[in-house]
C-alpha cells in the first residue's frame, strides 16, 4: 500500500503572528495610548473611535498591511489603506494626510490619529520609575517610598510633587 500524504491546512502550519507576549504588550500600549488621547483631546472622540477601528484591523489582520512605513531621503511616511481601497500618505512631521477628509476640513483625520497612536505605542518605554499618584516616570533620585498612608500602600513610589501633596510618610 502506498502512503497518502495529507496536506496540512494553513492554520496548522504555524501559529499566527499576533500571538505571544510582544503582541499583547503592543496591544496594551495601544489601548493605553488611545485612552490617554481620549482624555487629552475629547473633541476628537469620534475620529479617535474611527482610528481605533483602523488599529484593530491592522493588528488583527497582519497580511492586509493596513499601516506601513516607508522612508525616503531620511523622512518617514506612513501609508494607510483606506476603506475604499485607496492608500493615503501620512506625514509625521505635521501629521498631514492625503485623504479628502483632511483636505476638506484641514484638521486631523482618522488615518493620522491611527499612525500617531501606533508610533507612540511602538516606542520603547521611557526610563525611570513610575509615580503611583500621577503615573509619570521620574529618575530614582526624585522618588520617595511610602511608609504609611491612607491613600497608598507601603512601598509605593511617589514623585516629590505628589508626595508633598499627599498624606504619606516616607521611609
Features of the shown structure:
alpha+beta, elongated, 171 residues, four-stranded antiparallel beta sheet
Textual characterization of the structure:
By secondary structure, this protein is an alpha+beta fold. The chain folds into 2 domains: 17-122, no CATH class; 129-170, no CATH class. Helices cover 38% and strands 20% of the residues. It contains 6 helices and 9 strands; from the N terminus they run αααββββααββββαβ. The chain has helices at 10-13, 21-40, 45-60, 100-105, 110-122, 160-165, and strands at 67-72, 75-81, 87-91, 96-97, 129-130, 137-138, 143-148, 157-159, 169-170. Strands 1-2-3-4 form a 4-stranded antiparallel sheet. It has a 3-stranded antiparallel sheet with strand order 8-7-9. Strand 1 (67-72) and strand 2 form a beta hairpin. Helix 2 (21-40) runs antiparallel to helix 3, helix 2 packs across helix 5 and helix 3 crosses helix 5 (110-122). The protein starts with 9 loop residues before the first helix and ends with a strand.
Amino acid at each position: 500500500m502506498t502512503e497518502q500524504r495529507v496536506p496540512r491546512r494553513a492554520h496548522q502550519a504555524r501559529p499566527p503572528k499576533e500571538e505571544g507576549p510582544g503582541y499583547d504588550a503592543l496591544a496594551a500600549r495601544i489601548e493605553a495610548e488611545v485612552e490617554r488621547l481620549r482624555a487629552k483631546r475629547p473633541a476628537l472622540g469620534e475620529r479617535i473611535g474611527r482610528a481605533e477601528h483602523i488599529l484593530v484591523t491592522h493588528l488583527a489582520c497582519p497580511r492586509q498591511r493596513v499601516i506601513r512605513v516607508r522612508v525616503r531621503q531620511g523622512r518617514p511616511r506612513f501609508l494607510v489603506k483606506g476603506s475604499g481601497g485607496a492608500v493615503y500618505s501620512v506625514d509625521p512631521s505635521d501629521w498631514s494626510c492625503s485623504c479628502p477628509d483632511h483636505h476638506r476640513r484641514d484638521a486631523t483625520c482618522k488615518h493620522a490619529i491611527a499612525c500617531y497612536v501606533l508610533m507612540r505605542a511602538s516606542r520603547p518605554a521611557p526610563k525611570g520609575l513610575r509615580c503611583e499618584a500621577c503615573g509619570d516616570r521620574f529618575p530614582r533620585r526624585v522618588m520617595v517610598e511610602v511608609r504609611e498612608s491612607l491613600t497608598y500602600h507601603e512601598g509605593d513610589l511617589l514623585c516629590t510633587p505628589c508626595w508633598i501633596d499627599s498624606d504619606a510618610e516616607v521611609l
